[in-house]
Amino acid sequence: MPSWETMDHKCYENVFWGEDLSSVKGYEVLVQRNSDSKKILNDLEEYLKKRSRLELDYSKSLSGLARTFRQRDDMGVLEATMTLLKTELDSMANYHNKASISFQQHADNVKKFKEDQTNRRKLCEDNLNKIQNSKLSQLKITVQSEKLYVKKCSERDIAQAAFKETSINQVSVPKDIEKAKSRFSRATEDAEKADTQYKSAVMVLEDCRILWENEMISACQSIQAMDEERIKFMRQEIWDTTNIDSQLALDIDRSCESVREVLEKCDIVTDIQAFISKYKTGEIRPEPFSYKHYTKIQTMNDNDSDLFSPYSTIGEEQNTSDTSSTGTRTFFGFAKKKGAAL
């Protein structure tokens, strides 16, 4: 009996009995407890296995997402941030993969514990069930012996009364007296035999009851001990697996903090100026396109002067594909045959 038992804390061995010797309620409660314990462990194992698969799938998804990052031509802190973000995504994928492995290890632990308890509980049930069936069988025999004993004793009493009545009856003939005496003698022998059988059955039943009671106590103690082990084990397993989530959250937060620390250095003005410094094309804007008389344009083109228009070749560039064997197009769009003057 555990030392912690008090009026408010009872033990299994003291509370799963019944006043009726044929009662099996306590046994049925304990068997149901064993079944429920196995189901609870099954639920925990299934949860851990599913969590492991979810973490693994998420890890693969994060790795795939990290691979989609492409190097872009950006400037300043944002470029470094995007590079770091890809790196931290890979790290997060690794964290979730480790979590997946840990959840699977805990699932394996639960499975091993469950199988061990299932075997021990089954052995306990089988032993108790065997002795309990023996007790119930002997109880049935004893009840039948008791009924037979009562019947034979009643028949003996009736035969005895009949013999006395016949003996004192003056009209009774010796033959009738002898018959009554013979019936009384046989009834007495049957009653004594029934009495012996009944006493023997009661003794055997008492032996069965003692064996059953001892086995019931042992079963109650074993099942309570296994329940205590299961509760302690599950409490620790659930505690440890929630710590996996906590550690995962901390690891992910560290990765996020790394990105945030880089982003804190991001300055809009600095990044804009860095882009301008690297890719600027000039600060002088083009003059307006002014109208010129065609003779001036021809003169400018023929003399290749400093006043040469930067737009004079645009038409030629755009119409290169329109060139044919009969001639080419000028800036003005008129056809000019080979060897011919304008």
UniProtKB/TrEMBL annotation:
Entry keyword set: Coiled coil
Organism: Biomphalaria pfeifferi
GO biological process: actin filament polymerization
SMART domains: FCH
All copies of domain F-BAR, residue ranges: 10-271
Molecular function per GO: actin filament binding
Lineage, opening ranks: Eukaryota, Metazoa, Spiralia, Lophotrochozoa, Mollusca
Signal peptide location: none
PROSITE patterns in the cross-refs: F_BAR
Taxonomy, superkingdom: Eukaryota
Keyword NAD: no
One Pfam family here: FCH
Cellular component GO terms, alphabetical: actin filament; cytoplasm; plasma membrane
Protein name: Proline-serine-threonine phosphatase-interacting protein 2
Record has Nucleus as a keyword: no
InterPro entries linked: AH/BAR_dom_sf, F_BAR_dom, FCH_dom
